[in-house]
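Suppose you are handed a protein chain with no further information: no name, no annotation, nothing but its sequence. What can you learn? This example shows the usual starting point.
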Amino acid sequence: MRPLTFILATVAILLIIFSCRTNTVKDRQSIISTEHEFAEMAAEKGIANAFYHFAADSAVILRGGKLIRGKSAIRDYYLKNLKPGTRLLWEPDHADASGDLGYTWGKYTHMVPDSTGKITESHGIFHTVWKRQADGNWRFVWD
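A reasonable first move is to predict its three-dimensional structure. Written in structure tokens, the prediction is:
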């Protein structure tokens, strides 16, 4: 299955599931707050540390056309593949939740310095699926 097809199918399934349940303002606010904490940690303590901290144990990310599975593998991917000085900024535009699942989407900016210090920026849209953990915290399961 092509990555975009997989993502669109995942979003469609989640939308169907969520449309059948009552969404709560409290959960949406909690997920947005978690998303902000995630972005702040990435800026302050590094992308690899933030993705490790906010990932569920079974989290999966799609990068470079490949699935990276598990929070330790995600951290290792970022430690290995990010150039020093790389920054990632993002802001959720939307969140929704039902029960123990939620999702966000929004805009991101990825900034990578070259060997001369010139920054190359790329912009895009992110989509993250969140799952409430046994301790009540939200952790991402798909990004």
